[in-house]
Write a structure and sequence with these properties.
Elements (H helix, E strand, L loop, with lengths): L2 H8 L4 E2 L13 E6 L8 H15 L3 E6 L3 H4 L14 H18 L6 E4 L1 H4 L4 H7 L6 H5 L2 H7 L8 H4 L1 H16 L3 E5 L3 H15 L4 E5 L28 H9 L3 H11 L4 H13 L5 H15 L1 H14 L10 H10 L2 E4 L5 H7 L6 H9 L3 E3 L2 E2 L14 E6 L6 E6 L1
Parallel strand pairs: 2-3, 2-5, 3-4, 5-6, 7-11
Antiparallel strand pairs: 1-6, 8-9, 8-10, 10-11
Length: 415
């Protein structure tokens, strides 16, 4: 499968300035892809962009990956209906370092160049910028861009010159990288189409050279209808301190069937025959969730590594009742304590007290009602008894659950 064929099969093409996408197959391209540093972690929305980079890298093309240490100080107005609050230089520097670390991790195994646009912007003279960059842009097409026109129009929140200038900064990024690294292609999200064209225009006016842009679609969570982004509720982060590897794994293993095939194509390196085989297996026996499990394995291993994947799988198997809590080793137990409430108790303790102590019930009255409704299980077995017994503890611990959702579980360990 050629690069252009793989990009189309995976659904990575939204818009491009290339007249024929097959031009990508005719030579080795040097591309750049910029990543925002407005937060201290990237999300799975950004991970889709990183997977696009991996497709190009697998086909032998050269990458320049950019952390936006300068542009994030300004803030991209695209997709925003009001001004972003400015963050401190120290915060953005920290975020850019985090972005670089995550880009290196996801892109490990490939050769690429890492840059931070603060390196060429921090000492730029404002007169130099206005004369050598701003002079090449006409105000007319800039104010007609959707996100700017909306902000400036009747009922809009308005836009500062700071955010208005963002597109010029990104355009200069492309020019700088074109001159310094021979970059001829920018990869970006669909919301960056206008900003990307700013770079093409600047390069053409300054050097007379033709460059190109390819954008990928925004990835939508099929279950919620919202994009996978930083500002969306329930964002799934790449930083294990913000979304634990186990929660990350469980997100993927529980994705909606509607998005399953799309996610396999976008978020894994699996080839077409393998994806087709997984989808066939899923259609034959959807309850086994074979394709979901493979998706969760591939993405978790890529982002967090093999060791964290093993732990995430072990904890998940305990929570869904496929493995006894006694089988967890100390490392997995420590991870489980970060996933669900963990308390200490003894044989003979009242179960209603245990339910309240671990937060599965708001009161003893509610806890008694759960017991009467047969909603409580210990180690996967329904129970209506009043006290914990010695044989409930497996290697000094038990799992207590309210209802069917494994998130409503707690780890109880002997005092």
């Amino acid at each position: 499968m050629t690069l252009s064929e793989e990009l189309q099969w995976r659904g990575f093409i939204n818009q491009t300035t290339l007249e024929d996408i097959r031009e990508l197959d005719k030579k080795t391209w040097t591309f750049y892809h910029g990543y925002d540093a407005s937060a201290d972690s990237q999300t799975i929305g950004n991970l889709a962009a990183m997977m696009l980079d991996r497709v190009f890298l697998r086909h032998g093309h050269k990458a320049v990956l950019l952390a936006g240490g300068a542009t994030s100080l300004i803030g991209d107005p695209g997709g925003k209906d009001k001004e972003r609050p400015l963050q401190s230089e120290e915060t953005i520097a920290h975020n850019a370092a985090c972005a670089e670390a995550q880009l290196r991790r996801v892109s490990r195994g490939f050769d690429f160049t890492m840059v931070n646009n603060l390196d060429w912007f921090q000492n730029m003279n404002v007169l130099h910028f206005l004369r050598d960059v701003g002079k090449h842009y006409s105000m007319t097409p800039l104010v007609q861009r959707d996100y700017i026109a909306t902000r400036m129009g009747e009922g809009g929140a308005g836009i500062s010159y700071t955010e208005f200038s963002y597109t010029l900064l990104q355009g200069y990024d492309f020019l700088h990288l074109h001159k310094e690294y021979g970059v001829e292609l920018q990869l970006a999200g669909s919301d960056q189409w206008g900003n990307s064209l700013s770079g093409i225009e600047l390069i053409r006016k300054v050097t007379g050279k033709q460059t190109h842009v390819l954008t990928l679609p925004l990835i939508i969570n099929k279950a919620t209808g919202k994009k996978f982004g930083k500002s969306e509720d329930g964002a799934v982060w790449l930083d294990p301190a913000k979304t634990t590897p186990t929660a990350f794994y469980q997100f993927w293993i529980n994705v909606d069937d509607k998005g399953l095939e799309e996610y396999l194509k976008i978020y894994t390196d699996l080839d077409k025959p393998t994806v087709d085989e997984l989808m066939h297996a899923h259609q034959q026996n959807p309850k086994e969730r074979i394709a979901h499990k493979r998706l969760a394995q591939e993405v978790t291993k890529l982002v967090h590594g093999e060791a964290e994947l093993v732990i995430a799988e072990a904890i998940t198997e305990v929570l869904v009742g496929k493995k006894a809590v006694a089988e967890l080793d100390d490392t997995a137990l420590d991870a489980m304590r970060r996933e669900i409430p963990a308390i200490h108790a003894n044989a003979g303790d009242e179960i209603v007290d245990t339910l309240v102590d671990c937060g599965l019930a708001a009161s003893k009255t509610e806890a008694r009602r759960f017991l009467q409704e047969n909603a409580i299980s210990i180690n996967g077995q329904k129970t209506a008894k009043e006290q914990l017994e010695a044989n409930d503890f497996q290697s000094g611990r038990l799992l207590i659950r309210k209802g069917k959702m494994f998130k409503d579980s707690a780890l109880v360990e002997l005092s």
